[in-house]
Amino acid sequence: MSEWTHAICPQCWDKWFGDRAPVALAEAVREWELCCFCADGTNAGLYVRYNPALLLCEGIHEETSANPGPAAKAGRRAAAPRGRR
Ligand SMILES: [Zn+2]
Ligand SMILES: [Zn+2]
């Protein structure tokens, strides 16, 4: 994830970008991440481009999954061959 791409939970999407339609990842490839706007965990698969200087994360995104269940791991493997949309 680049500095400008942030995970965001549905609540924060409504609050900050409620006038825009969210673009969500397919359920199979979603991971648990921290919402950069409120620091709650989210696996809604929502991301937004936003100035990192204005957010909690300051553009630093660790590649951790806060809550990786077996289903999430299996989903990631199944989704490995990309390019079919
Ligand atoms: Zn962020
Ligand atoms: Zn949030």
Succession of helices and strands: EHEEEH
* Share in β-strands: 5-15%
- Summarize the biggest pleated sheet: 2 strands, antiparallel
Strand order of the largest sheet: 1-4
Radius of gyration over all CA atoms, rounded: 13 Å
Description:
The protein is of the alpha+beta class and 85 residues long. The chain has one domain. Helices cover 20% and strands 12% of the residues. The protein contains two helices and four strands; from the N terminus they run βαβββα. The strands form two sheets. It has a two-stranded antiparallel sheet with strand order 1-4. The chain has a two-stranded antiparallel sheet with strand order 2-3. The longest helix has 9 residues, at 70-78. The two termini are 20 Å apart. Bound molecules: zinc ion (2 copies). One zinc ion binds next to loops.
Offer a few descriptive terms.
binds zinc ion; two-stranded antiparallel sheet; 2 helices; 20% helix; 85 residues; alpha+beta; 4 strands
Put the structure in a nutshell.
This protein is of the alpha+beta class and about 80 residues long.
Helix/strand layout:
Elements (H helix, E strand, L loop, with lengths): L4 E3 L2 H8 L15 E2 L6 E2 L4 E3 L20 H9 L7
Antiparallel strand pairs: 1-4, 2-3
The structure holds zinc ion (2 copies).
